[in-house]
User: Fold these one by one.
Assistant:
Number 1:
Amino acid sequence: MNKEKLRYAILKEIEKGNRSFSHADFGVEDAVFYDQIRYLDREGLITGVFYADDIPYSLIGVEITSAGEDYLKQHSAWAKAYRGLKEIRDWLKF
């Protein structure tokens, strides 16, 4: 599984206004998903993650920062391949 693609997909969903996704939507283990949410938050790509016992509990208030927008621009080549959560599991495998 490509962690950078997972980060990109998470950021794209947030950019589209989707805040109600989980690890199951991406077809990854919950620990992998939580690690990537923590990474995006720690690196300043997103803000507003609500944590409970160090686990990202809610993404309702999450926003993409300017650094997150830069990340999306840097990986814009993936934009054509990424079509949303319906196909995300297959896309992450490549």
Note: Residues 3-15 form the longest helix (13 residues).
Number 2:
Amino acid sequence: MTYLKAFGYQNLKTKDSLTLQSLIPVASVSKLFTALTLANYAVEKGISIDTSFNSILPGNQRLSSDFEHISLADLLNHTSGLTDQSSIRTLFFQVEKTENSATCLNS
């Protein structure tokens, strides 16, 4: 069972109520959860954060050679060299040439 309901105001001045579709800017707060999740994963799998991102992908999946140098530490320290959303999207999605549809690497 899942309970879905939004509480509070989206805008305090106008008293617009929050909805389940409301976007809430969390800014850097999410970095803490990302770092803790990655640290837990690294400890659980016995890997270093200096490990290449490519080496932990499942099966024979690999990122393009443009991203070969990126380590988990680079992602956490924001020193990976990724500069825009299209580069980041390329990390996790590959485009199938036959149908022109995006497919997640994890599928």
Note: The first strand starts at residue 9 and ends at 11.
Number 3:
Amino acid sequence: MTPETQKLIKLLESHLGYSEGKGAYTKFGDWYGRTVEFDADYSGAPWCDMFLSWAAHKLGYEEWVGQFAYTVAHAEWFKKNDAWGHKPKPGALVFYDWGGSNDIDNIDHVGIVTKVVGDTIFTIEGNIDGASPSARSATRARSPATGTRRRSRSGWRRRG
């Protein structure tokens, strides 16, 4: 794992336990609406991707992580840049389609891989756990993962 990826994961880890406020407010959505997309209020929007985008922005990694609120658009960006794969590695973003179609157009969620053991992926994700969505570590089976992507500071690094 690169030093840049380690910094990104460390920053995300420092926000584990962060949860939505009143009206589903998050500082990540609020930041996104003020910094990236000025056409709408994102402060109460689903925020898994904005959590990753916020951290990338904080570290100056926008060029290789991306700045997205919509997981489908984020995955399409990686695919367009030949950075789409199916073998999760630590530091890779992992995208999920909970319906299991493995179709980019049906992606529901994104996180960052911190460790892989066999068919188990360990991640950090925002907007998980339903009734009180928060930023948490997750342990997931590989099977719902639609794809992964990773870009190094020196250029695209295709995985899978």
Note: Confidence is low (pLDDT under 50) at residues 151-160.
